[in-house]
Amino acid sequence: MVRTPRFAAEDFVEAAIGLVAEGGPSAATMASIARAVGAPTGSLYHRFDSRAAVMGAMWAALLDELAGILAPPLAAGQPARAALALADWAAARPRPARALLLADLDTVLDAPPEGGTAAAIDAAEARIETAFDACAARLGIAAEDAAARNRLRFLVIDAPVAALRPALKAGRTPGPGERRLIEELATLLPTAPGIEEDAA
């Protein structure tokens, strides 16, 4: 009979997300991650050979989740829906949102990501960028129009993140107030010809 591992890599990644969300990147040590799962530290080292490895896997998982939220509406030429999807995700998943939106890769990792982790991070980032490019094209924004593209990125991503951060920093789940603010920002976004946005 094949013995099923008691602790999966995903268990440790989820624990790291929770620790970073509650105490920042420094709270996620190898010992604290293992303790949060209820596993021996050796089990964690069996899955990940270093803190950088588990934190890189955490960051890749968070970016993949974000790409899953943003890429579909962006690729469909619906920037307002993308901005509001970000708000709804932060409300539904405050711990991953806090871990991702209040940190950055340099503070999370002890060393640059390598191998499959680096590829996973690059793939998630590329998915978002490809969808953003498709959205800009559907809105009639030329590839060389840096000002228009920067404005689109600000209204879809940067401004909503800024609206969500105060609640996340205070340990609160973003609620209707943050969503209303992002709805107001979304009214400044252009719409693609022939595409109707339902922001509700």
Automatic annotation (TrEMBL):
Stretches assigned to the HTH tetR-type domain: 6-66
Signal peptide: none
GO molecular function: DNA binding
InterPro entries, sorted: Homeodomain-like_sf (IPR009057), HTH_TetR (IPR001647)
PROSITE patterns with a match to the protein in the record: HTH_TETR_2
Coiled-coil parts of chain: none
Regions recorded as binding DNA: 29-48
Highest taxon above the source species: Bacteria
Entry annotated with the keyword Membrane: no
Keyword Manganese: no
Pfam families: TetR_N
Keywords: DNA-binding
Record's protein name: TetR family transcriptional regulator
Species assigned in the record: Tistrella mobilis (strain KA081020-065)
Phylogenetic placement of the source organism: Bacteria, Pseudomonadati, Pseudomonadota, Alphaproteobacteria, Geminicoccales
